[in-house]
Specification:
- Helices cover 57% and strands 2% of the residues.
- The chain has 164 residues and is mainly alpha-helical.
- It has a two-stranded antiparallel ribbon with strand order 1-2.
- Helix 2 runs antiparallel to helix 3 and helix 4 packs across helix 5.
Length: 164
């Protein structure tokens, strides 16, 4: 405390910093506005439907790109999501979900349609030093996509920090 004469008086302990509650007659020119706790979100979370539609579109693009062999698309999706004005955790969660759904569909679809993708996944897992199971190869591939997204998201957030 800077002023021991204020101990025990109203406003001496500024405990909350969430929202102001109007004017304060005791407040001098150097005292900040009184604050009270609030359980409301600080700002709007935005439309959930638009975010989910964007996630679905991203998953479809990533699935098509994986089918074409464009392994770098999760990195590009992470850059776009990280450079946007969205909140960090929801944007990162949605783009990771898009990679898991998009790449997962592109990896499991050939196996379900009868193509020898399972055998290929087993061989890739064995060559990587992992247990030779198709699910392990698919999980390792999805983990690589998730790592691409997280690194690209972090890079975009770091480079555009001053612009937000």
């Amino acid at each position: 405390m800077a002023d021991p004469r204020r101990l025990g008086k109203r406003g001496a302990y500024r405990l909350g910093e969430l929202r102001t509650t109007g004017s304060w007659p005791e407040r001098g020119p150097k005292m900040p506005a009184r604050r009270e706790p609030s359980f409301r979100p600080r700002r709007s979370r935005g439309p959930l439907l638009a975010a989910l539609m964007g996630c679905a579109a991203t998953a479809a693009l990533l699935g098509q790109g994986a089918g074409l062999g464009w392994w770098f698309l999760p990195f590009a999706a992470g850059i776009v999501a990280g450079a946007g004005p969205w909140r960090t955790l929801p944007a990162l969660g949605l783009v990771v979900l898009a990679v898991v759904v998009g790449w997962g569909a592109a990896l499991w679809w050939p196996a379900l349609s009868g193509a020898p993708a399972g055998a290929t996944a087993r061989v890739i897992a064995a060559l990587a030093g992992l247990p030779p199971h198709a699910a392990v190869g698919v999980a390792a591939t999805l983990l690589i996509g998730i790592l691409q997204v997280v690194v690209a998201f972090w890079l975009a957030r770091a480079l555009t920090y001053r612009l937000r």
